[in-house]
Amino acid sequence: MTYHILHVDDEKEILKLLQMYLRNEDMQLHQAENGREALKLLAEQPIDLVIVDIMMPEVDGFELIRRIRKESNIPIMVISARIEASDRIFGLDIGADDYLTKPFDPHEATARVKALLRRYHSLGTALAKSSQLKVDKLRLDLHACVAYVADQPIELTAVEFRVLKLLMEQPGRVFTKEQIYSHGWQDSLTGYNNVRVMMSKLREKIGTERIKTIRGLGYRLEGHHERT
């Protein structure tokens, strides 16, 4: 299977570098030099993953992530020269699934892209045996990869989907930050601090009362489990 990757960056050397490495992995790379071009390509091409720079003209990376997340749940990886923790946290908070800083190792970037694609596209196959998870008024459709709160659809990132599935499979069980990190990001090297950011965002989406913080231990989902 050939994956279609959209790489958005105004540095042509970076575009050429990743094109060389990703092409060797049987990936077709579509390129854009700013967010406006990227949005046009997304509307015209079937894209499996987006790589986004932050500092770009016209529509910057943060705004591009926001606009993509309004329409799609595809994986988004940031590759940026902005190295501050606040930038990384903000990027992940608004919907990015991974964040890599420049200068970067192209082998690592390629590995991260492959990992995100593997996790995202396995959701429709490895999980196909189950149809839905229900915990009270919270429902997770495993075929469509969509969450519902009181039958209202909720947009989730790929990481949020994996973590919510983990919590909903065993409501009442306490999961440590390490377990959540391992299940959510798996072999994407982002750091445990991003668990707190992601859990905060997930609470906003499904209801703050549904996920409890167990001080010194981790998190648990409140409610009663039902599988259909």
Structural overview:
With 228 residues, the chain is α/β, with parallel strands linked by helices. The chain folds into 2 domains: 120 residues, Response regulator (Rossmann fold, 3-Layer(aba) Sandwich); 96 residues, Orthogonal Bundle (Arc Repressor Mutant, subunit A), CATH 1.10.10.10. Helices cover 41% and strands 22% of the residues. The protein has 8 helices and 12 strands. The strands form 3 sheets. It has a 5-stranded parallel beta sheet with strand order 2-1-3-4-5, sandwiched between helices. Strand 6 and strand 7 form a beta hairpin. Helix 1 packs across helix 5, helix 2 packs parallel to helix 3 and helix 6 packs across helix 7. It is globular.
The stretches of 5 or more residues where confidence is low (pLDDT under 50) are 124-130
Structural class: alpha/beta
Query: Roughly how much helix do the residues carry, as a percent range?
Result: 40-55%
CA-CA gap between termini: 32 Å
Give the strand content: 15-25%
How many domains?
2
Mean pLDDT: 85
Strand count: 12
Keywords: Antibiotic resistance, Cell wall biogenesis/degradation, DNA-binding, Phosphoprotein, Repressor, Transcription, Transcription regulation, Two-component regulatory system
Domain Response regulatory: 4-117
GO molecular function, one term: phosphorelay response regulator activity
Protein name: DNA-binding response regulator
